[in-house]
Amino acid sequence: MRSLDRHRDVGAYALGVLDEADRFRFEDHLGECPRCVARVGEFGSTTAALALYARATPPAVETVAEAGPVLLDGLVSRMERVRRAGRRRWLCAVAAVVLAVAGPGVVVLGGSGDGAVHLDARDARTGVSASVTASGREWGTAVGIEVRDARGPRVCELVAVGRDGSRQTVTTWAARAHDAAATTTQSAVALHPQEIARFEVRTTDGTRLVTIPMR
Question: What is the distance between the terminal CA atoms of the chain, rounded to a whole angstrom?
């Protein structure tokens, strides 16, 4: 793929619609492109909101099986424009995109929080430490994360593990080589705080780096 193609694949990667070969090539690209790392993280709330919509859709309503190229291109273009406008406008844009997909009468974002839970953990084996802030919302959980991982490069993800054993990816990022600086990002998950047993920081090939139990 040409360099431009790799940048444009950020939306497809974040929404999980790349095939295995393209996903592997894009993850290799993530290790060298901080811009794409940031943009992948920005899709976290969108993917969580779409997952919530799928869960809330009645069985008689056919949900979207996969995002087509027009939708993906539109999401990428929209996210690029609002990213420069700041976090506040970005959240409004995400709500508009999700409501456009879900249709009228489906409320995805909104409501007030019920307090935040601050969680910290460090794994002595891997040397990775993580701090997670989980804030309950009407639609699920807003999640803030700070991770220190000096053993990159590698692509990592934060996974929320439900008390029922279900798993939802919260966000992904690329840890750079020998970088002790913290990686911070904001995202969301459709599970409510009381439904979450723990958070896990993992590599995308399945290696668990640190576990953060939920209180």
Answer: 45
At 8, the pLDDT band (50, 70, 90 cuts) reads confident
Residues 6+ apart with CB under 8 A from 53: 63, 98, 101, 102, 106, 108
Model pLDDT for residues 132-176, shown as the tens digit of each residue: 999 999 999 999 999 999 888 899 999 999 999 999 999 999 888
Count CA atoms closer than 13 A to 25's CA, side-chain side: 14
Instruction: Determine the pLDDT at residue 150.
Output: 85
Q: Are strands 140-148 and 208-213 parallel, antiparallel or unpaired?
A: unpaired
Contact (CB, 8 A) for 189 and 168? yes
Sheet (strand 154-162) strand order: 167-175, 154-162, 196-203, 208-213
